[in-house]
């Protein structure tokens, strides 16, 4: 199937409250344009340099989401245009995003990444660190960053019960903060392999790459 067909079949199966981020990392602009022409306007990239190049070359009504791990010294390259940063996982990074957002004269929306997987290699905060970040006075004084929800990645496994347990855990953390914080509206979880399950578990934003664009090298 073509990129457009993949996209439309996934899009038509998503519930109305779930937003699709088309994960286009490593893919050429011609592939992204095929998705764009089929109506897709939200793209996810995991390298700031690559995202900035695509942003420059492509139509300006695209919303660019940074879904990868962010290095503090590169925030400045995306601050002028990024529409959502998914993988924010430290106060230091929050401070840098706020600083660069001030320079760019805008407010940048971010999700805090929560560590839910068994693998140590995956990034993210635990519940305690999340609480202390959100309640810190340093964070509360920032005016140019807005935390609009949470993001997480389950363990890479075929064990559906385990994935479900991890995604449900993230949803419960999300709910416990959302009741006190009306800006918390986005729960980003689910990729090609687990997005249906993630939606059952309460996801409002899925990040899908290979099921749309095909495998990556
Ligand atoms: C690459 C990536 C995805 C998409 O993965 P697929 O399995 O190709 O759908 C989603 N989220 C993050 C954080 C990624 O790095």
TrEMBL record:
Domain of life of the native organism: Bacteria
GO molecular function, one term: pyridoxal phosphate binding
CDD domains: PLPDE_III_YBL036c_like
TM spans (from-to): none
Residues with PTM N6-(pyridoxal phosphate)lysine: 25
Signal peptide span: none
Residues covered by the Alanine racemase N-terminal domain: 3-216
Keywords: Pyridoxal phosphate
CC cofactor: pyridoxal 5'-phosphate
Pfam families linked: Ala_racemase_N
Summary of the function given for this chain in its UniProt record: Pyridoxal 5'-phosphate (PLP)-binding protein, which is involved in PLP homeostasis.
Family, per entry: Belongs to the pyridoxal phosphate-binding protein YggS/PROSC family.
PANTHER family (UniProt xref): PROLINE SYNTHETASE CO-TRANSCRIBED BACTERIAL HOMOLOG PROTEIN, PYRIDOXAL PHOSPHATE HOMEOSTASIS PROTEIN
Name of the molecule in the record: Pyridoxal phosphate homeostasis protein
